[in-house]
Specification:
two-stranded parallel ribbon, flat, disordered N terminus, single chain, 5 helices, alpha+beta, two-stranded antiparallel ribbon, about 160 residues
């Protein structure tokens, strides 16, 4: 029941001992940047040949381009045991509670968190009956906390 289609920046992989922790947070962070249409300044970026030639035509050298402005060629690996949690979190993209706040002369959106009844509905419809729903829900909460840091950067 869980969709198995993965965005280009994410790939599945088996969890092996000794691998670094934080894969759920990395996946949540990547999705939050995708949702906001921004590049993650903490990930390596590269400029493709067409973009480099456009900059050259404008007289701009590539080293003058601010970090984080290119397209990242890094891939965030989602472990197989986390794929259900990732799929639920991704499907909850429309379940965010959002408030409009007036800050410093402009209006910004402040993401408050996921609507948990909506998350429950997504889990009920996506996950097979045999899934460990408690674990998936806890994973989604970890991902939510990480995504909130990215989603609320403009509100800070």
């Amino acid at each position: 029941m869980v969709p198995r289609r993965r965005p280009e920046c994410l790939r599945a992989g088996g969890h092996r001992p000794g691998r670094p922790p934080g894969k759920l947070k990395a996946a949540a962070r990547a999705l939050a940047f995708i949702w906001t249409g921004r590049a993650d300044p903490e990930r390596a970026s590269r400029l493709d040949a067409a973009t480099l030639s456009q900059f050259a035509a404008l007289g701009i050298e590539a080293d003058e381009v601010p970090a984080g402005e290119g397209s990242s060629d890094e891939v965030v690996e989602v472990w197989n045991e986390h794929w259900d949690s990732y799929a639920v979190f991704r499907a909850c993209a429309t379940q965010w509670k959002v408030a409009s706040i007036h800050v410093g002369g402009k209006t910004v959106l402040s993401y408050l968190g996921l609507d948990y009844p909506g998350v429950e509905a997504v889990m009920r419809n996506l996950l097979p009956e045999t899934s460990d729903r408690s674990r998936v829900f806890l994973d989604v909460m970890v991902m939510e906390a990480e995504a909130l840091l990215v989603l609320n950067e403009d509100a800070a």
